[in-house]
Amino acid sequence: MSDTPAVTGGPEAPAAAGRPDAPAAAGRPPLYFIHGMWSTPAVWAGLRERFEVAGYNTHAACLPYHDRDPSLPPVAELGKLGVQDYVDFLVADIARLPQTPIIIGHSLGGFLAQAVAARIQPPALVLLSPAPSAKTGVLAINSLRSMWGVIRHWGWWKSPTLLDDAGARFGVYNGVPAEVADAEIKALVWDSGRVLFELSLPGVAKAPAATIDFGRLTMPVLIIVGAQDQITTAAVARATARAIGSNVDYHELPDTGHWLFYGAAMTKVGDLIAGWLKQR
């Protein structure tokens, strides 16, 4: 991976992992994937492979410090990075690409995709289980239960955080086969408490970056969410669709939770994205 511009308050982080040897399709913009909180670019491996075979060039962002071995103590500075730091990092990373990409984000990445899109105007936007913005937050007991292992610790809002096993199994990997969930939980990495604070309590955090300028999201938007998502609930996705407006295609998958990157769920998500992209 090549270096990328430094993030405010942090070291240089790896740029988006691209695969320049992927077969390019004439006239197709590249696909740029943004992972979620406590996650890494590795979650996109299956979908990237599918779309590269179909002729797309793909790139997967790695948010600051998310390439660090989770068994190591977290870097204290990570907990102080805010939403604006993540957005600025992604805008700078995308600027290095030869063509403005279609942006695809999951969970926190779904929120960040909107914030970035409002600034750079990509040709299209795909939001998978998007995290809430200041306008689209919906109070949900299951979301609080999912994150209880994080937010019960004093000072979480200014420290690195890591989702605990119980919260991960309840909120992220509900309905996922045990062997898949076990492997994914081992791969979780530390993330910013500040970012979590700004998105979960934007009024208290006084974080302007948690507000999306929906008037600038005029490009075609695809939203996909699992009906049984416990952590970024379908209610958030519906609120996001309403806020964006008439240029949205919305799909709510029955019997599906937050984790969309395995088995039949990933196949369905890939089919929906592929079919939608063909119409663009």
UniProtKB/TrEMBL annotation:
Keywords: Hydrolase
Domain AB hydrolase-1: start-end pairs: 32-262
Region (Disordered): 1-24
Nucleotide-binding as UniProt keyword: no
Transmembrane segments: none
Highest rank taxon of the organism: Bacteria
Descriptive protein name: Alpha/beta hydrolase
Origin species: Glacieibacterium arshaanense
